[in-house]
Amino acid sequence: MSTKIKKQLDIILELKAQIENWKSYNEDELFQIVKEFEKKPRDEGSFWYEEVLSDKTLASNLLEIANKYPENTKMNIYIVSALGNMIKRYKLESSEEIFNYFLKKTQIKGVALYVSFFLPYLPQFDKYDNKWEYIMSIKKITPLKDAEISFRERIEFFLDQLPIMYVQETITFFEQCIIVAKSDYSKKMYKELIEKLEQLS
After folding, report:
1. What is the pTM of this model?
2. Separation CA 84–CA 114 (nearest Å)
3. Cα–Cα distance measured from residue 19 to residue 78, given in angstroms and rounded to the nearest whole number
4. Is-contact 82 62, C-beta < 8 A?
5. At the top level of its lineage, which domain of life is listed (predicted)?
6. Which helix (H) or strand (E) holds 148?
């Protein structure tokens, strides 16, 4: 283990200990702890971080914090990002509690966009009854420009599964994106995606 990785691991372990002891801190103190921790699962990765960042108890503590402070939008954004990256990058098991927390936050302004980055990739999402209604709703999340990118990425990933009933709506949306796109690269990207969508109909 390199000196750099050991230093980062020590920081992660210290933050983990603070999160496990979260009831000892007030909201402002806890916000700073969560803010610092959120950076770790999305920073440069390492095998050495996996044991800590896939820890179920750590995830449960983050959920407890989120449930204690549901009105703290920024705190919940950091928790969504932390949990999402722990699942995506460090093999944290996605529990029903995490899935239900993400679902609940799809309706919360400010947090909903960050949920859209991770929710569709949770294993529980495959069996979610409103799976496609949710994916199609992503494009309406604010801020709209960021939602456009999130929606495009989700459509690209799930393209082969897109139900026929949503194909034309998706094409129409991306045609509008071409009109307002400022770069030739973006226009080309959307045109290519539309061509793929047209092959589905």
Report:
1. 0.93
2. 9
3. 13
4. yes
5. Bacteria
6. helix 144-158
With beta carbons less than 8 A apart as the criterion, state whether 88 and 118 touch: yes
Of 45, 112, 48, 113, nearest in space to 85 by CA: 45
Radius of gyration for the chain, computed over Cα atoms and rounded to the nearest angstrom? 19
CA dist., res. 94 & res. 170, Å (int): 29
Domain boundaries defined on the chain: 1-115, 129-201
Give the Cα separation of 38 and 40 in Å (integer): 6
